[in-house]
Amino acid sequence: TGPEIGGTLVEIVGANFEMSQSTVAYIGPYPLTNVVVVAPETLRGLTPSGSAIAGPRTVTIITQQGSGQLENAFTYEARPIIEAVIPDGGPTSGGIPVTIRGQGFIAGTGFSIGSNPVPGVVITTVDAGIYEARGILPAAVAPGIVNVVAYNQNGLATMTGGFLYYAADGGVPT
């Protein structure tokens, strides 16, 4: 498995790989990059970027002698997507519960509001492929509109202007 953005080093084990430039490998319809045939039964390459859709893919090897395929041999994992922040505003003092809803929130996904990490995050599945990350709003230095970010090994998502910090006394900046 690897992220949709590509760049995962894969090793494919088989037979009769040719130690020439004529051996080509594909993940789905996209060719591996930097392919090196290490031995007649092993090749390595980097997964291509731009697949755009998470899910399983067929691995195909083509040589001058023929081709072979293995269905669902590699899975692209979804990068995070932020769909909503609830509430979408809060006090600069922080400390209130906040929920970030979206996709691609796997174990180890981190979140920040403004430049501060969201502490105490617990990720739960809401529906097939839809997740909620619940945590505590971090404090901010000043009122204003800030970005919300989700990040993990598969990529980064930014909801530009996704949260409004208002003065701890309840005043909204003008």
Gist of the model:
The chain is an all-beta fold. It has strands at residues 2-3, 9-13, 24-27, 30-31, 33-39, 42-46, 55-63, 66-77, 81-86, 89-91, 97-103, 110-113, 116-117, 122-127, 130-136, 144-152, 155-166.
Overview of this protein structure:
The chain has 174 residues and is mainly beta. The strands form 4 sheets. It has a 5-stranded mixed beta sheet with strand order 1-8-7-3-4, with no helix packed on it. Strands 10-17-16-12-13 form a 5-stranded mixed beta sheet, with no helix packed on it. Strands 9-11-15-14 form a 4-stranded antiparallel beta sheet, with no helix packed on it. Strand 3 and strand 4 form a beta hairpin. The protein is elongated. The model has no long low-confidence stretch (mean pLDDT 90).
Write the layout of secondary structure elements.
Elements: E1 2-3, E2 9-13, E3 24-27, E4 30-31, E5 33-39, E6 42-46, E7 55-63, E8 66-77, E9 81-86, E10 89-91, E11 97-103, E12 110-113, E13 116-117, E14 122-127, E15 130-136, E16 144-152, E17 155-166
Parallel strand pairs: 1-8, 10-17
Antiparallel strand pairs: 2-6, 3-4, 3-7, 5-6, 7-8, 9-11, 11-15, 12-13, 12-16, 14-15, 16-17
